[in-house]
Write a structure and sequence with these properties.
The strands form 2 sheets. Strands 1, 4, 9, 10, 11, 12 and 13 form a 7-stranded mixed sheet that branches. A 6-stranded mixed sheet has the order 3-5-2-6-7-8. Helix content is 40%, strand content 21%. Helix 4 packs antiparallel against helix 6 and helix 4 runs parallel beside helix 8. The chain is α/β, with parallel strands linked by helices. The radius of gyration is 23 Å and the shape is flat. The termini are close together.
């Protein structure tokens, strides 16, 4: 028997929790936001399709609990989980019919886990608006409509093919007809597939098509620096009303301000945020919103001199979570020792947590909870 915790057997440096595609109309601030999030310097210019090829940046997830574990346990290494952001070319009216960079844009979106839809909520005469004037509600509608139309075309084509295959006696093709009919009906009525009430069986049959509107979305209100602070909530409420979405799906931030923040030394960032009346960077709020809508929880492992963060979806059994670390750990799973983050911090050490009766022995079906600190026992 072997024991393993946070150190993956293949020594990979960090796990990517999800891929987020940054989308929106041209000149809404996508690349500025990407540069702020990924601390890069991709071109940002005042013309449509400045971003042609996708830009990718991997960002460490801000994690106060991981920092606390570092202070408490004094490991040599703290390894956070990461998010991969993908800056995708701007979409325009008619993208679903191939206008602009439509086909390429839509293909890139299919490859991500979730969408961060940037909506321009700032006036700036030096940055042209592809639609002529500022109107966030209209802009949201354009992107949403194009995604719906692209999915509708995909679903109709797939349905036609499956009906033909069924007529030729293909029983497997017949199984996908009802889910595709439900998809076509929903999309034709302007309802994104994520809100269509699809069953798990429906989703399984529709999965090969990577439908765009089935992906969860966070909306980013890119506001002016003048609106930072008190005016943020007004923009959140305005977009929530236009979208018919809950406010927790919307993050208001000033992309230029976030970019300026990344150019400062770490010790200066807290002062910069305080001067603007902000308690945390936009990245932290964006990741929190994405984790929330996707149902992602974070757990931690301790192995030797490393404390490491990992992520799984809510409801994941601990044996499956162990497989995130290494497949051998899921196959040879024996048991897991589990303590909550709060109990570990209160006890001051793993030894203290054990003495206090806070470390539990769990079987393979234990559901991982947000903040669990886990030591997996497994056979090789």
């Amino acid at each position: 028997m072997r024991e393993a915790g946070g150190e993956p057997l293949n020594r990979q440096e960090a796990t990517v929790s999800l891929d987020v595609g940054i989308v929106g109309l041209p000149n809404v601030g996508k690349s500025t936001l990407f540069n702020a999030l990924a601390q890069t310097s991709v071109p940002c210019s005042n013309y449509a399709f400045c971003t042609v090829d996708v830009n990718v940046g991997v960002v460490a997830v801000p994690d106060g609990r991981l920092a606390t574990l570092g202070e408490l346990l004094k490991p040599e290494k703290l390894t956070p989980t990461t998010v991969r952001f993908v800056d995708i070319a701007g979409l325009v009216r008619g993208a679903s019919r191939g206008e602009g960079l439509g086909n390429k844009f839509l293909a890139n979106i299919r490859e991500v886990d979730a969408i961060a839809h940037v909506v321009r909520c700032f006036e700036d005469s030096s940055v042209s608006h592809v639609e002529g004037e500022l109107a966030p509600e209209r802009d949201v509608g354009i992107v949403t409509t194009e995604l719906l139309l692209a999915d509708l075309d995909t679903a109709q084509r797939a349905l036609e093919k499956h009906r033909k295959d069924t007529a030729r006696g293909d029983k497997d093709a017949q199984k996908a007809i009802r889910p595709l009919e439900r998809a076509v009906d929903s999309l034709d009525r302007g309802i994104p597939l994520r809100a269509a009430g699809l069953t798990e069986s429906d989703k399984e049959h529709l999965a090969p098509y990577s439908f765009l509107t089935e992906k969860e979305a966070v909306y980013i209100a890119n506001i002016s620096e003048n609106d930072v602070g008190d005016a943020e909530s007004a923009w959140v409420e305005r977009l929530a009303g236009a979208l018919g979405e809950a406010p927790d799906r919307i993050v208001a931030l000033a992309a230029k301000l976030e970019r300026d923040l990344t150019e400062l030394a770490p010790r200066e960032r807290a002062e910069f945020l305080a001067a603007w009346g902000l308690s945390e960077p936009g990245l932290t709020r964006l990741v929190r919103a994405a984790y929330g809508i996707l149902g992602i929880v974070t757990f931690y492992t301790i192995k030797g001199t490393e404390v490491r963060a990992w992520t799984v979806r809510e409801g994941t059994p601990v044996a499956v979570a162990a497989g995130r670390i290494h497949s051998d750990m899921e196959k040879g799973f024996i048991k897991a020792e589990v303590v909550s983050f709060d109990d570990l911090v209160a006890a001051g050490s793993m030894h203290g947590a054990r003495d206090g009766g806070h470390v539990r022995t769990e079987g393979r079906d234990h559901v991982v909870l947000d903040g669990d600190v886990i030591l997996v026992h497994f056979r090789t």
